[in-house]
């Protein structure tokens, strides 16, 4: 089976994730989209590992998963904190850091 | 003790006195400080005498000794050492400075007694003497300049001693600014000389003076710059305007500035730098002419001034003009001899004037004085001796010394004879204005103050006023305190004036024509390299002719003054003369408009430039461009960057995406 299809799928998923981050306002959904992008990357890494015939890409994909898990923990924690403070769960409303 | 030790001790005592007085100002009673100050200077004088004896023990060829205490800096060929040069000229000056200053300190002990600033006064006074001694003993240009600047600073402190008087502080600033002009001249002149000689050491530089060609451009420029320094310190035209204003200081300060510590510095400088001036006769001629011009201008102003102290101030200017004219014409013996005798009689005149001003309760206007002769016999005697000496009546000191200068000028010949003749014209005017002052203050009907003094009561003004403006002022600040001291009642003042009176009578005998030649022989080692030194010994004709002319002119001047101000009680002739010569009188009484000219040519353009700088340069260039430019750029840049920070998360994400995509595309394209 040719590798191109995996890469096309990876690019597709990555684009969906990126588009989601740009258009969605709910931080929970944005986090989901981030996960999509990371996993699209993972898919690409694994594909290239297979194509090159060594395990570096697979190991790297594992590390990315660990990082993604951590990131999800922090991100969800933030969202819960925002929710607890009765702040709007909407990234466009949370823009106090503007210049 | 060795010569070097004596020499260093001359400097150590006044400096020690200053420091001691300053640090014990809160601890010891103020009366002690007067004693400390006087003793310090007296000990310096003793050391100068010790150095004199040691110096005379040396062979005539060895009487130039440089003593180095330590190297202050020795880099890139500049050897700035703390060194003193002990030679006859330095010792001569040290003797005059410390000797006269001792007497002035002694006088001040009484005169300033009730002033609140008594301690401060003596600290300044000692510092002044120390600065002047540093100047005359300095063994290289570096410390000469240091001493030179110290003298300027000390004069500023003392002229504006009564610092709550606006007139006094202004006079102090004026003196300081003009002196700084002179300092700049001295420093630049030193540079021009250093450029060729390559050493700051005085003796070394003198030896290298022959490296200059005759009238070398650099050397002429350097010598003229040195002259600027000398003119500023010695109050020569056109740098003289600070001197009459310096009369704002207490009278002992005036005596110190005029007799011992300040105005003589210019004369000393020219005499000290004689190897350079002799190589650059053009510069020396400038000095001679300016000296002659100054002596005439000052004498004419002194004829019409009505302030007692200012008459004496202008007479100083005039006499310094003689000295500058003398030393710049290479008549060193005459110039330095006159410096010494002048120190005696000028200090004496100022002390007597101080006594009169005390009796007048700080009034200095001659128009309001009169008839003090019977009330103050001792003061009158001193004033008369000083006046006779200043006018040049034989056998008083001023007669011989002034005549020595003029006789040497005649001996030099050429156009110097013209200068000498103008000098005699000046001598005639000197006799008139000196005795005009004395006749007006001491003769005529006694004024109220004199009558009170005759009854044994010293006059006190109902309220203290500033003599310059007539404004009522605080007794703390103006004239020396609530009590006034006159010479008749204070032994210290009497001793000081008595010693000076003896000097004013007898000091002239040191160098009388061909009879005695103490000054000439003593100073010989300093001037051993000067061909003019022996060449300009006055000829018999010049000596005798000068004596006759001097006697006739001085006595004639005094007689004229007697006719105009004593015999003619109503002063009708003076009034008539003034009316007939109204234009000349206005010129003289406005001091030849020097203040106005300097004001218009220098002060106002500078003030205008200053205002321009403040209003235009400061606001537009500094504030607008230099400061506002970078600030504006940063502000605009930060505004642009701030605009990106919208706070929208997706906006950042889009930027990131675009950026990474762009970067990726760039690498892809450049890789293919």
Keywords summarizing the entry:
heterodimer; A: 99 residues; mainly alpha; Helix Hairpins; 76% helix; elongated; B: 672 residues; two-stranded antiparallel sheet; 27 helices; 3% strand
Q: Mind explaining what this structure looks like?
A:
- The complex is a heterodimer of chains A (99) and B (672).
- By secondary structure, chain A is mainly α.
- Chain A has a single domain, classed as Orthogonal Bundle (Helix Hairpins), CATH 1.10.287.3510.
- Chain A is built from three helices and no strands.
- Chain B has two domains: 140-590, no CATH class; 595-671.
- Chain B has 27 helices and two strands.
- Chain B has a two-stranded antiparallel ribbon.
- The chains are: A mainly alpha (99), B mainly alpha (672).
- Chains A and B meet through helix 1 of A and helix 26 and helix 27 of B.
Outline type of chain A: elongated
Shape of chain B: globular
Total of helices of chain A: 3
Main sheet attributes: strand count, strand direction, barrel closure of chain B: 2 strands, antiparallel
Order of helices and strands of chain A: HHH
On the 0 to 100 scale, the average pLDDT of chain B is: 89
Give the strand order, joined by hyphens, for the main sheet of chain B. 1-2
Helix content of chain B: over 70%
Order of helices and strands of chain B: HHEEHHHHHHHHHHHHHHHHHHHHHHHHH
Percentage beta strand of chain A: under 5%
User: Number of DSSP strands of chain B?
Assistant: 2
Low-confidence spans of chain B: pLDDT under 50, at least 5 residues?
none
Distance between the termini of chain A: 51 Å
Query: Would you count the extended β strands of chain A for me?
Result: 0
Roughly what is the average pLDDT of chain A, rounded to an integer?
88
**Strand fraction band of chain B?**
under 5%
Tally of separate domains of chain B = 2
């Amino acid at each position: 089976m040719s590798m191109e299809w995996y890469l096309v799928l990876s690019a597709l998923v990555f684009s969906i994730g990126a588009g989601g981050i740009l258009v969605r306002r709910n931080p929970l959904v944005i986090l989901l989209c981030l996960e999509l992008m990371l996993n699209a990357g993972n898919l690409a890494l694994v594909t290239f590992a297979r194509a090159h015939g060594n395990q570096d890409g697979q190991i790297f994909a594992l590390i990315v998963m660990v990082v993604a898990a951590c990131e999800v923990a922090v991100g969800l924690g933030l969202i819960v904190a925002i929710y607890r403070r009765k702040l709007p769960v909407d990234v466009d409303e949370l823009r106090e850091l503007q210049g | 003790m060795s010569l070097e030790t004596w020499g260093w001790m001359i400097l150590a005592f006044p400096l020690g006195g200053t420091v001691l007085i300053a640090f014990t100002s809160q601890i010891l009673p103020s009366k002690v400080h007067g004693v400390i100050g006087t003793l310090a200077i007296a000990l310096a004088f003793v050391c100068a005498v010790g150095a004199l004896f040691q110096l005379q023990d040396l062979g005539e060829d060895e009487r130039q000794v440089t003593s180095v205490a330590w190297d202050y800096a020795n880099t890139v060929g500049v050897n700035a050492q703390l060194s003193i040069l002990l030679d006859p000229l330095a010792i001569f000056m040290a003797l005059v400075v410390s000797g006269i200053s001792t007497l002035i300190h002694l006088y001040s002990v009484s005169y300033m007694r009730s002033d609140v600033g008594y301690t401060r006064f003596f600290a300044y006074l000692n510092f002044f003497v120390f600065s002047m001694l540093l100047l005359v003993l300095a063994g290289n240009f570096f410390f000469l300049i240091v001493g030179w600047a110290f003298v300027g600073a000390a004069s500023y402190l003392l002229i504006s001693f009564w610092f709550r008087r606006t007139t006094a502080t202004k006079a102090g600033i004026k003196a300081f600014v003009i002196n700084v002009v002179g300092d700049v001249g001295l420093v630049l002149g030193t540079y021009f000389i250093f450029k060729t000689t390559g050493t700051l050491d005085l003796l070394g530089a003198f030896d290298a003076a022959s490296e200059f060609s005759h009238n070398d451009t650099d050397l002429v420029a350097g010598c003229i710059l040195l002259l600027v320094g000398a003119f500023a310190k010695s109050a020569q035209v056109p740098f003289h305007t600070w001197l009459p204003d310096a009369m704002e200081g207490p009278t002992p300060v005036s005596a110190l500035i005029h007799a011992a510590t300040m105005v003589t510095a210019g004369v000393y400088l020219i005499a000290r730098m004689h190897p350079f001036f002799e190589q650059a006769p053009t510069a020396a001629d400038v000095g001679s002419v300016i000296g002659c011009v100054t002596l005439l201008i000052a004498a004419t102003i002194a004829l019409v001034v009505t302030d007692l102290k200012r008459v004496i101030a202008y007479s100083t200017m005039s006499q310094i003009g003689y000295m500058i004219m003398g030393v710049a014409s290479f008549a060193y013996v005459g110039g330095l001899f006159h410096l010494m005798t002048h120190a005696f009689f000028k200090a004496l005149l100022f002390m007597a004037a101080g006594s009169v001003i005390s009796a007048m309760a700080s009034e200095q206007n001659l128009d309001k004085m009169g008839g003090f002769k019977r009330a103050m016999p001792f003061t009158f005697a001193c004033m008369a001796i000083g006046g006779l000496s200043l006018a040049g009546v034989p056998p008083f000191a001023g007669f011989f010394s002034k005549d020595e200068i003029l006789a040497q000028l005649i001996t030099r010949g050429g156009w110097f004879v013209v200068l000498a003749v103008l000098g005699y014209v000046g001598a005639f005017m000197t006799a008139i204005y000196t005795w005009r002052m004395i006749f007006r203050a001491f003769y005529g009907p006694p004024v109220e103050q004199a009558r009170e003094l005759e009854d044994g009561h010293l006059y006190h003004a109902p309220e203290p006023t500033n003599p310059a403006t007539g404004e009522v002022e605080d007794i703390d600040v103006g004239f020396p305190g609530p009590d006034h001291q006159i010479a008749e009642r204070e032994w210290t003042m009497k001793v000081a004036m008595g010693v000076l009176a003896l000097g004013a009578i007898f000091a002239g005998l040191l160098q009388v024509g061909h009879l005695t030649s103490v000054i000439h022989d003593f100073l010989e080692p300093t001037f051993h390299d000067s061909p003019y030194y022996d060449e300009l010994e006055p000829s018999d004709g010049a000596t005798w002719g000068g004596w006759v002319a001097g006697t006739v002119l001085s006595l004639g001047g005094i007689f004229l003054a007697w006719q105009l101000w004593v015999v003619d009680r109503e002063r009708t002739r003076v009034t008539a003369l003034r009316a007939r010569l109204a234009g000349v009188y206005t010129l003289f009484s406005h001091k030849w408009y020097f203040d106005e000219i300097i004001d218009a040519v220098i002060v106002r353009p500078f003030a205008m430039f200053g205002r321009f700088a403040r209003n235009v340069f400061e606001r537009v260039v500094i504030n607008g461009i230099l400061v506002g430019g970078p600030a504006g750029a940063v502000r605009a840049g930060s505004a642009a960057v701030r605009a990106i920070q919208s706070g929208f998360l997706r906006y950042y994400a889009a930027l990131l995406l675009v950026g990474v995509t762009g970067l990726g595309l760039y690498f892809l394209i450049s890789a293919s």
